[in-house]
Amino acid sequence: MSVKFNQLSNAVRFLSIDAVQKANSGHPGMPMGMADVATVLFKYHLRFNPKNPNWINRDRFILSAGHGSMLLYSLLYLTGYKSVSIDDIKNFRQLKSICAGHPEYKKGTGIETTTGPLGQGLGNAVGMAIAEEIYRKKFGPTVINNKTYVIASDGDLMEGISHEAMSLAGHLKLKNLIVFFDNNKISIDGSTSLSVSDNYKKRFESYGWNFFDINGHNEKQISKSILKASKSNKPTIISCKTIIGFGSPNKSGKASSHGSPLGDEEITLVRKKLKWKSKPFEIPKEIMDKWREIGEKGEHLEKKWNELIDKKNSRIKDELRKNYNNSDFVDLENLIVKEKTKYFETKPILATRQCSMAAIESISSMLPKLIGGSADLSGSNNTKTKNSKIINSKNFNGNYIHYGVREHGMSAIMNGLALYGGIIPYGGTFLIFSDYCKPSIRLSALMGLKVIYVFSHDSIGLGEDGPTHQPIEQLTGLRAIPNLNVFRPADINETFECWEIALKSENTPSAIALSRQKVPYINPSNSKENKCEKGAYVVNLTSHESNVTLVASGTEVELALKVQDKLKENNIHSKVVSMPCMELFDKQNEDYQKDILEENSLIITLEAGSVMSWQKYIKNKGFNLGIDKFGQSAPFKEVYKHFGLSEEDITNFIQKKLRE
Hints:
Largest sheet: 6 strands, parallel
Helix content: 40-55%
Mean pLDDT: 96
Strand content: 5-15%
Radius of gyration: 28 Å
Strand order of the largest sheet: 10-9-11-12-14-13
């Protein structure tokens, strides 16, 4: 018995309908509307292998419209991925089911990225497409030639991040990127005409994209548009005119099918209209067999690819596997120790952004998978070094991307680079603009990606640019994100150590906050040990009987050391602690923490920003010195003095408290 196309797509529809209904929660309308597009893609075009979801040269499928997650789960189950069982689908949106409300990235499951916050998937897809171009240039088009396919909603295209990401994709001529726009003209509030009157064709053609208009329920039109897009020399968006809630007599084409279950009565009518006689969660054997056959094609495709790789010389095979897999970081550790020894001898006085550039320059010479960039601030962030080779539309044989003034797009693209595999992305902007990056940083942390955010101009120390550019609450906001290491190094030694930790942190992204103003070399000894790994350590103490502990990060460590000298002049002994990473310190055992922050000591924390994240360290005895108001425009030393963060002000404050 031959299986008709609409039977295949109806299998996707009814798994989605039934799962949402059982959960009494979810979005059935989009999977119902886009089932035909997805079925054409998986049946005729997508190269994937359910038995090896990590195949390097697989096509990537991104559901940017993550609210329609049941579309993805249905496809994974039907094509034979072991990650999604029928019981998982029956437990849609329930505790511990892989079928979460919105797709959540898990390596090796077929879920390529975490989506739901609209526009993020599009940004990730651009990163994946860039990564493919990098690998294709490195290993040749016969070895790497995969495509990245995206399903995006009208909401994805309304979000500003879509402009940032898709504009850059057009600029780079990412011909391997194909986006299906679910153009159903319905959003949660109702018709999209309530809020949008864009001319999509002109918009995307102005970016340098192809724009095709098709009937999203016409099998031949869908397939022809994909073939046409796959032969293009630029990215393509296919506007699929679809009916949300397709097949529902009373709710199709309406917002009522968007974010709520259809209801038992309506589902009965849908079954009747689409001639689907199976019970909930049951797929007729002949239809299931056909879907599994579609999935099995990928095993043959990967086998042929492996045969091709085996014919290549051993250098290509070894280099491909070395690049794509995790590196052995012994060479990195040796390099860091060598560099630290060099700087112990010279003791340079540098801004930590300059220290970071020195670290990047050294590390990038031995770590080709490090791909950098900046949101139009390369010279200020010091992310670009003499080893940087620019990636552009004519040459992807490089390691540096000019993202333009697109902080949010840059961050989402970096997530995509990391998700593709074999690449460690880093990107820079000012710390104040981390607010523009925050949604993507949060997803880096949620997915456990090795992404490194370089944030320069990290405090009021940037001076004359004033309160619009002086970060106050940004460090606290970043520190509030779970599974994100926030580093604020105090000198070149710490900067190298923080970079080492960031590069070795397999499942945790990093934010490195760097100064504009220069700082002295602070470490009194040349130690091979990475002291920053414990988050905090003692830099100097004037006596083991000290009764004051000065705890600081970044540029304020220098300030703490100056205060220590002044206290000593008055016979007050103290200990200076550098805390470059709270998250790592908080993971240390209780004995280590008590050794660093002694209970019988007056603890004073210093940071030129919000004190909120420091309050946990002073217990009942101590004070947090910082800034909880907006900055001022003036030379940085005057700004510090204005906010009571001069060595004289702090010394007087401590003496007063000791007398009380």
